[in-house]
Structures are given as structure tokens and as C-alpha cells.
Specification:
Order of helices and strands: EEEEH
Oligomer: single chain
Strand content: over 45%
Structural class: mainly beta
Amino acid sequence: MILEENRALAMGNYFFTDINGQDTKVEYTFGYRKDTNGKLKIDVHHSSLPFNIEESV
């Protein structure tokens, strides 16, 4: 997590489990900023599957 005066960034992983119990890892990034009332609002969101060299060849 990166905190600045009027901005914050969070990065990490979450996992989804399908009905067969198979987990899928997803990497995420969220960006937040303070609005004029001082409340945090999401201004950036990105999620993706991790890079896999074996699948890219």
C-alpha cells in the first residue's frame, strides 16, 4: 500500500474458487483519491491473471 496526501494505491492478490475447488489467482491494483468532501473514491482499478512464461511461448 502506498499512501500520499490525497491519494492511495493498493496492490495484491485475490483468489477465486470454482465449483470444483480449483483456485485461480488474480493480481489487482486499486487507486483511491479524496473527493472534495474528503471521502475516498476509487479512480483506478485493474485486475489480471499473473504472467505465465509457459503459456506465452
